[in-house]
Amino acid sequence: MSAIDLFTPLQLGPNRLANRMVMAPLTRNRSTPEGVPQALNVEYYRQRASAGLILTEATCIAPEAIGYPLTPGIWNSAQVAGWQAVTDAVHGAGGKIFCQLWHVGRISHPDLQPGGQLPVAPSAIRPAGDAFTLAGPKPFVTPRALSIEELPGIVSDYRNAARNALLAGFDGVEVHAANGYLLDEFLRDGSNHRLDAYGGGIDNRARLLLEVLGAVGEVCPPDRVGVRLSPVQPFNDMRDSNPQATFGRVVELLNAFGLAYLHVTEMGIDAPGSAGPRFDPLELRDLWQGVFMTNAGYDKTRANAVLQAGQADLVAFGVPFIANPDLPRRFQLDAPLNPADPATFYGGGAAGYTDYPALA
Ligand code: 8OZ
Fold first, then answer.
1. What torsion, rounded to 10 degrees, do the Cα atoms 22, 87, 152, 263 define?
2. What H or E segment, with its residue span, contains residue 55?
3. Whose C-alpha lies nearest to ligand 1, atom 8?
């Protein structure tokens, strides 16, 4: 047991976090059609600057990385300018903010791709389910397997996006390697059936992620880079035959990079019908030699308990930050929380986005 709680500051590389409460990355589908953050998005993030650290919504690294309408990007100068207004607002309010770098892989649709092309993936395996297109849900298509010659281009897109993130004033970046998107599709054996150096054994499946981190590290100091993993997240038709072994080895490999933190979401751990392979996130915590961020369904009591037990150093809160822009203050005062309205999570305007009230 320790005296650390959610309100104990944390030095994270060069960034001093005022508290241990992280705003989780939250897709809200309210950018312009060109993927540019706008004034409404600036206001949303500014309202939430009392989080110790804000992780942006997943942000596309290239036009091919897009899988949902109205999600932001960070590959061009208009997007960088849009994000600069966000980071200025958050910094002006005393906060810290990292940009989450995203390539959706197969979780897309030709309607959302440049030139109507097929989405790309490690292997040509169609996920069950529907893509969200501007015309509504449409069944996922079978993606095109990336050739080995194309992978340096993907790595380079991550490097470019990280460089742009720093140009836009972000305090760091989080590489999104979770939830069934491209990097996670490489990590897990349900979606990666490759026979080359990027498939098969775990070290091969982790190769693209490690190359991405190497490239991002060329333009952004590693102590300003985090990684998000989701070992048992079934979302997006994901599975792995042995998540404990896969992600244990991934974490061992990640130790070499001197990253700011490792972010592990426990989503899916008690999903109905997921009595699949055994998984204990604490084993990853023990293997990891740096700052450990946990996530998924925590409230104040459970979050303080894991911090005090040394089972995590940071806790990311998603839905509570949607509905409570001043969540740290509410936790500090034990004030009641606003309930969140799922009907306004994805898409729309200010309603359910910037109109949740702060305490008087
Ligand atoms: C919900 C809806 C759309 C995208 C993730 C980026 O799961 C997402 C996402 C979540 O990481």
1. 0
2. strand 53-60
3. 27
Active site residue 353: no
Q: Can you tell me which residue has the tokens 């990007």?
A: 73
Predicted TM-score (pTM) of this structure: 0.98
Domains and CATH numbers, the chain: 10-344 (3.20.20.70)
Q: How far is CA 5 from CA 292, 299, 308, 335, in A?
A: 14, 13, 6, 17
CA-nearest of 130, 106, 131, 102 to 119 is: 106
The pair of structure tokens assigned to 308 is 């005090």
Nearest-CA residue for atom 2 of ligand 1: 27
Find, among 184, 194, 203, the residue nearest to 145 by Cα.
Answer: 194
Contacts of 166 (CB under 8 A, 6+ apart): 219, 220
CA distance 166 to 218: 12
Q: Of the residues 44, 158, 181, 356, which is catalytic?
A: 181
In 175-200, which positions are buried (b, 16+ CB within 10 angstroms) versus exposed (e)? bbbbbbbbbbbbbbbbbbebeeebbe
Q: How far is the CA of 288 from the centre of ligand 1 (A)?
A: 25
Distance 60 CA to ligand 1 centre (A): 12
Q: Please write the tens of the pLDDT for every residue from 242-265.
A: 999 999 999 999 999 999 999 999
Compute the distance between CA of residue 45 and CA of residue 93 in angstroms, rounded to an integer.
10
Pocket of ligand 1 (CB under 6 A): 27, 58, 68, 178-179
The DSSP bridge partners found for residue 262 are: 227, 292
Q: What's the pLDDT tens digit per position in 272-289?
A: 555 567 799 999 999 999
- Residue 178 C-alpha to ligand 1 middle, in angstroms? 9
**Mutational pocket test of ligand 1: of 23, 26, 27, the residue with most ligand atoms within 8 Å of the beta carbon:** 27
